[in-house]
Amino acid sequence: MEASIVARFLLVASTGEKGKSLLGLRWAIAAIERGWAEEVRVVLFGPVEEHVARGDPDYLEALERLRGLGVEPVLCERYAQAAGVLEELRGRGLTLGPVGEMIAELAGKGYTPLVF
User: Fold this and answer.
1) Does a structural domain hold residue 67?
2) For residue 3, is it within any domain?
3) 6 falls in which pLDDT band (50, 70, 90)?
4) What sign does the dihedral 78-79-84-90 (CA atoms) show?
5) For residue 99, which of 48, 39, 44 has the smallest C-alpha distance?
6) pTM for this one?
7) Is residue 40 part of a domain?
8) β-sheet bridge partners, residue 8
9) Range of the domain at 30
10) Phi first, then psi: what are they for 72, rounded to 5°?
């Protein structure tokens, strides 16, 4: 691949199906490490947040790798509150916010959404 890649992706991990949502997070890691994109943003939005709140080591490792690569994943604060896992996620030092707005804003800026 050429070094002049200008693609920007928004990875949305939503499903509670572990294999699918982890695939998305691992794709984001690979895209950053291998230079498949100029920029990758990551949002966790929905049932996947419950895995993270419970401390699933596969998710925690993926999130730490993303952070180590300079990507700060954002989790949906409203979903976390509704699911009763807000304090657990905050306790893990994760960034929570209004991801619906974030998704709309990034799509408007030309990011390609990938939803897992």
Assistant:
1) yes
2) no
3) confident
4) negative
5) 44
6) 0.91
7) yes
8) 39
9) 8-115
10) -100, 105
Based on the structure, what is the number of domains in the chain?
1
Q: Does the residue 1 lie in any domain?
A: no
Summarize pLDDT for 32-71 with one digit per residue, the tens. Answer: 999 999 999 999 999 999 999 999 999 999 999 999 999 9
The string of DSSP codes covering the chain is: --TT---EEEEEE--S-HHHHHHHHHHHHHHHHHT--SEEEEEE-STHHHHHHTT-HHHHHHHHHHHHTT---EEEHHHHHHHT-HHHHHHTT-EEE-HHHHHHHHHHTTPEEEE-
As a whole number of angstroms, the distance between CA 112 and CA 87 comes to 31
pLDDT, position 3: 52
CATH number of the domain within which 34 lies: 3.40.1260.10
Q: Which two tokens stand for residue 7?
A: 């693609």
Residues of the chain above pLDDT 70, percent: 96
